[in-house]
## 1
Amino acid sequence: MITSLNNKTVKEIAALSQKGKERNKKDVFVVEGVKMFMEAPEERICGIYVAGSTEQALLKTCGEKLSRLSYELVSDEVFGKMSDTMTPQGILCLVQQFHHDLTFLLKNGIKERKLFIVLEDIQDPGNLGTIFRTAEAVGASGIIMSRHSADVYNPKTIRSTMGSVYRVPFVSVEDIPSVIKALQEEGVSVYAAHLGGKTCYEAFDYRKSTAFLIGNEGNGLRKETVDCADVLIRIPMEGSVESLNAAVASSVLLYEAYRQRRV
Amino acid sequence: MITSLNNKTVKEIAALSQKGKERNKKDVFVVEGVKMFMEAPEERICGIYVAGSTEQALLKTCGEKLSRLSYELVSDEVFGKMSDTMTPQGILCLVQQFHHDLTFLLKNGIKERKLFIVLEDIQDPGNLGTIFRTAEAVGASGIIMSRHSADVYNPKTIRSTMGSVYRVPFVSVEDIPSVIKALQEEGVSVYAAHLGGKTCYEAFDYRKSTAFLIGNEGNGLRKETVDCADVLIRIPMEGSVESLNAAVASSVLLYEAYRQRRV
């Protein structure tokens, strides 16, 4: 059992929780809690740490998955130092990062019924994670993010995905306009959520392959991105509301597409 | 200019940011930033604090509203202690709490076209604030929350409302089932978002007066609450998603009602 706060592994894991650079260097990310452990693809798990006082309870909750895999016991104090959460559940894993390929992503899903969400510079990890969760819920083909978006592997993002990060393919790209072009070449119609949109979002047919562009929380989409879209759509708003939360805007559009596809 | 971190006012404001009890005792809440100051109803503002280094810029940005009202200057260090944000904008106000009345709330809006959202034990301040923002965007008549929901006046909630807290009437109630009865007596149909719902949400007509019940992030709605609802509705989900984020679920339902009302 690791009991020293100065243990090298303990320091490494704390650094992996806190620093994106460290995560990328080691090509892993940290997930916490029973749900995130249970849903983690087994072949990607490269380390499991369990707090001493919770071991017996976790062996029951996590069933044979935990008993089968080897894990390292750490003292509760050490676990507290590794953990990013206020009320840790006593289990934490290192998981290998994903490297989805844009070409694969563009081909993902039923040919004529793809559904993408393209995020430009989304800053809030909670919003990003929530968008992953909603994207899985509507059966989206994938998520495309600009390089300056929040880090998918930030512990807050990971928590908010509620496991969808394991299942929704995503890529981070340098240049959004060129991805829009690639989407259009695949027969995907690209809709930009924009305050300047003349027509409300529900007026369009999203049953065919569709991508929605969602911009930064404060500034919306860049002009050069908007210019590449096929259509500007508006989510109408009453009162003095100037914009919606980015995860809410994404959800309204994704669920409208999903509603049309199910009718 | 207040320059001492030990100044009584400074300590009081830090306590008002941090403690719900203090806020309720003094019947005020703290708002930060230019937008929240500009949108605050003037008659409710009972204190304005400006960081020395930002005064001149703020007098420009905030125009005559700031020049007209009296404010207290504080040193940047003192402002940092008062502030709850990572990158403070240098303006912070105390605003009088709202005391909306349930009877008034139930009568609010066009008689046959009311739209309520009823929240049972929503725990996350960000979710609660985001629901306020979306509720204003769809022209909702009001928000009803159980007593054990997150605190509306928590600085995180306030920030997430983006000013909607000033404009959407809300009440906190002891007993949700009795409120459901009161809504039904007003002719409002009450729909519970529930995983056990047999019919998808979009199958219903929300053009008449409608209320949506949304449950706690982890546990959903209580059984006694679900039992009072007129209909259980389901938001369909693909993949391994077990539930949606509470603010996302609220948005999907509120925007579907708003879509139907606009068509």
## 2
Amino acid sequence: MESLSVDLVDKAGSRSYPIHIGAGLIGRGELYRPYARGAVAIVTNSVVAPLYLEAVKKASGATAQIVVADGEQAKGWQTLNQVFDELLQARIGRDGLLVALGGGVVGDLAGFAAAIYQRGIDFVQVPTTLLAQVDSSVGGKTAINHALGKNMIGAFHQPRAVIADVATLDTLPERELRAGVAEVIKHGFALDASFVAWLEGNIELLLKRDAAALAHAVKRSCELKARVVAADEREAGERALLNFGHTFGHAIETGTGYGAWLHGEAVAAGMVMAAELSQLMGHLKKTEVARLRELVRRAGLPVKGPALAPERMLELMALDKKAAKGKTRFVLLESIGRAALRADVDEALVRKAIVAAAQ
Amino acid sequence: MESLSVDLVDKAGSRSYPIHIGAGLIGRGELYRPYARGAVAIVTNSVVAPLYLEAVKKASGATAQIVVADGEQAKGWQTLNQVFDELLQARIGRDGLLVALGGGVVGDLAGFAAAIYQRGIDFVQVPTTLLAQVDSSVGGKTAINHALGKNMIGAFHQPRAVIADVATLDTLPERELRAGVAEVIKHGFALDASFVAWLEGNIELLLKRDAAALAHAVKRSCELKARVVAADEREAGERALLNFGHTFGHAIETGTGYGAWLHGEAVAAGMVMAAELSQLMGHLKKTEVARLRELVRRAGLPVKGPALAPERMLELMALDKKAAKGKTRFVLLESIGRAALRADVDEALVRKAIVAAAQ
């Protein structure tokens, strides 16, 4: 097991938390015990429950288990209220601990439930997808969706610990594994050139679910993300760099209807578009764009976006911007491993980048 | 206008906020302007809107107004979702400002909406009831109710400012004014003997809504509450002293069905019970209990609880305890102005105190 620490800006001590990474961790009681001041409740979904609920229950000493539906639809009011009903019926108090066992949806939902149940209780993330292990379980962002926008209702609520057990990835469907790899690639290209080199040498091992390779990819991703989150917990600036590929990616997800493309797949194609845009703006070399394309391809991820006209993509990005009244900002690459945030991007170049990515 | 400051424990600067107290403040644009980085939305209810919405709209430059139903029922999911729908339709962004214009229900609801809308936006409290001005608008507690418990879902989210305009109290129904006075009396008896003496000399002026008397009562209450909140934002200890009269009071509210007794009325009778208990335990003198009874009576508030058997009261307090898995702790008085938290209270004495209070 390897452990690293997320140290948050206001160094009040209690704001730091460990991320444990390794194989076979979910059954280790000592990883839960420090946070179980009162009763423990597990929130998981109907797919993960048959696989890992018993082990986590035993290790954590949980007395309540809340099994929600699988899928993005569970990230809404109704499921959130189901969680509250069951927490209250199980008499979980302010000293209770909530264990989020599952992928990004369970982590976001259960984390948000912990953030607002009795004005906030402790929670531990036990991510069981690669996407959740390398991305969503770290950083304290929790949320549910609203009919008018994804993740529109939420809170910053840091977990007390993250237990990333790479052995749980053995049961992950192939397509979801690859979608998780997209965020791993993102961390490399946005923040760490040497991690990109490591990925170029180990991508096949990762896809074969080699435990050591997975553990390294999770660890390095978490280190990179933790560093950024520590510097910018509330996403005022630097944290936005983690959104490399996401401006285009969100447009792809919305344009194709949520669920048709997995988030990681949309991000993969979105990264290629963002890289082409970076090249058109004179930052990235063509050979560097080619390295991204090649790694995405080897990961079995889409290099090209869906059949959406560039005009439609621009429209979707503008809509996305308006919904939250933010500015359309692009995370561009100055070089591999060095992302930068830019708001002053010419629309004609964006159109050109979308066309170039489709070649 | 008088202004005081709530300074929170982690002195990060941005965590402090002003409370402005005076007559005719809601129309002063300069009190809103420092916080209006983006669009401004007002949340109010159907009773307050016809009275003060236009003035606040003009002063704050609000472009959106959300009018919810009046009453405790509005503190639920449905109304919260109404607020989110309208905030999103009005395209209020992360830089938006929410103005909570109304009593405790609006403050709790709108404050909670601000806490979780897009993971938290700024808000300003404009309390228009005495209860909200002296109590609920200060301290950052926000919440909605759940079918299984009041204020079960919520967040700590401090306002950027509180604008307590005592002129708005002119339109407050008599009974609600008196209910607010209960919390003023509570602040005195729990925390400040000289404030009790002032109240004994000025209670009639307060009830006549003399602006200077109201402003002093609001200011002193806010000062006392702000001091406690600053020392204990998350209610680990000292903040519980503000619950003097509330353990009994909650039992009265639940036992009579929410709404039959106003919160302040239940707290008034609850304070007498808590004082009797303090006397039975040898802390408070009989003459001190008599002073509380007399002030409560002069304020037109109930000295005696409802016709609930002591056994039923004990049962309700135990239920209250179990719901949140907390311990039944009593806030007792060691003397006037010196409250203390006690968990080791003999049940027989509690029964006796309830009986004594009914004499």
## 3
Amino acid sequence: MAKRIDSTPKADGYRMPGEYEPQEKMWMLWPERPDNWRNGGKPAQKAFIKIAEAYSRFVPVTMGVNSGQYANARNMLPPEVRVVEISNDDSWIRDCGPSFVINDKGDVRGVDWDFNAWGGLVDGLYFPWDQDELVARKVCEIENIDSYKVAGFVMEGGSFHVDGEGTLITTEMCLLSEGRNPHLSKEEIEQYLKDYLNLEKIIWLPDGIDPEETNGHVDDVACFARPGEVICIYTEDEDHPYYDAAQKAYKVLSEATDAKGRKLKVHKLAVPKEMVRITGADGIDYVEGTMPREEGEMAIASYLNFGLVNGGIIFPQFGDEHDELAMEQIKAIFPDYEVVGVRSEEVAYGGGNIHCISQQQPKG
Amino acid sequence: MAKRIDSTPKADGYRMPGEYEPQEKMWMLWPERPDNWRNGGKPAQKAFIKIAEAYSRFVPVTMGVNSGQYANARNMLPPEVRVVEISNDDSWIRDCGPSFVINDKGDVRGVDWDFNAWGGLVDGLYFPWDQDELVARKVCEIENIDSYKVAGFVMEGGSFHVDGEGTLITTEMCLLSEGRNPHLSKEEIEQYLKDYLNLEKIIWLPDGIDPEETNGHVDDVACFARPGEVICIYTEDEDHPYYDAAQKAYKVLSEATDAKGRKLKVHKLAVPKEMVRITGADGIDYVEGTMPREEGEMAIASYLNFGLVNGGIIFPQFGDEHDELAMEQIKAIFPDYEVVGVRSEEVAYGGGNIHCISQQQPKG
């Protein structure tokens, strides 16, 4: 049965694996929040279904859903997707779900960070977030997986990537933001990450590309392709809104070594040429306390925010001139993977993409 | 993944095992309904915890809970009890949960009956019951168990007992009631039961002991102890409110043969000497559409409504003069079982007992 454990994964010999390591399950949450998703979440639900179907080709998918949407979600999703009740404030399980760690014997445990809707009362995106806060624990209970509760430490799964061999990349913009852990120094934050994900080396990129939303999650900017190799968004167009963040990240990564002392190989991944812009914002409820979304506003759209799963890559497409280029780049980086493109503007309208709405459970 | 299956268990070679066969899990639902349980369900929750703890000695227990009570239930229950969200209208998983069937290879499937709160708009106990109706499906989804949806046929798990070898006992009072399946003849009802539980023989007892509530569920009156042997409540006190139902049931069972042609051996089980009477009814909300419970009203209390689980018996005790007698009788019927007595008046106040609030999942 699922116990709470007081020690740390490092002390117990557990580490967070890379996303390219074998996966047992993929977790998602059903979108419905009418003050974030246009038209009552109906277009977003269709996008989530396509993403769940794509993942299902490589791994069993479980969709968590609020009680009121259970019947609709069960009806709309294909039978191979398991639907379970997991109350949530919104559908970003990458951020509110557990980070899973494993040991050499193949035991799996969860790490349950504090969650505060990307900034709490400082600059969080909605209030309250009490149901999101319980998601990690509920996932672990359903699976009978023991978990570590990291009380007093706010963290989101989308704000870091690990190589599974002791290295983590993150951004200062997010982890040092006023809305996360202002009571902790950079060194203390590093120590939490090292203890709970079992790491030796933290690589700090300066910025992400969405300062107003997640305060710059790294999962829009850079990730590991395999140990010793990273992918970084890249553009030479100085007028592109991601130019500065991408250039700075690329420079840091190009000069970095990982926990094993390897100099990182850095792969470039295109950014969309035109920005995805929100349409149909009049179909989004206004709610005091929720960040409003305006018609024509730039939505954050990054090809880097893809899903990596058991030989498959679920890859965002935006109907952009660079869709094909990015697809070719990712295929070149992962020659042995099947790359499945999915149109995901609807997810971008809500503030994230395929990586943000999924959480992999490693194979035990 | 959990599929819906259009055929029937009988056609597919599945049967419902007896409760004395090996069990994999026990399912319960957390009580909270303030118009049924006194004092916001707090005393009932404590009784449910004791019952869950008792079951936990013999089988892993999962407690389903409405979202709003998740944190409280998780906090109050011991760690060995798994807590998952399963929205429900009340906590009678015996009746709204799935009936599980198995085949010779050890595959397990669920049977998902229609549920209408014990009589629907005719004489149901509350309205609506839409969340209860989904419980069976949700349990099967969590477990990745395929299920049969028996559409158009109202049935509750507490209204029948099977021997696992082709025989079922039930009551006419319940199954032929106006609020269940008035569109079906007795023979058609038999056919549904035979098809979905894989039976050859239905033994009809006339009455149960709670005409106003479940319309006479058999699980307060009689059950199987093992193939060929039944237990029946028994009293010679003509003034006892259960006298008529008990005597009639005893007579039918004493003259009955089972599906294998065996004459049944009938064990007697005492009834409480004094009736359990509801106290603290002023702590129960009045809600239009919910059956009211009055101070001093007789609560249905039967020792027969016990839990049978992997060598253990979780046995109701009421603080009654006959508690000890009933305990001795049950030990004599089950000499190889450990009998755990649990005070369960609080469950009786709400309309049922240990068997009503638990649903066993057989070992695959």
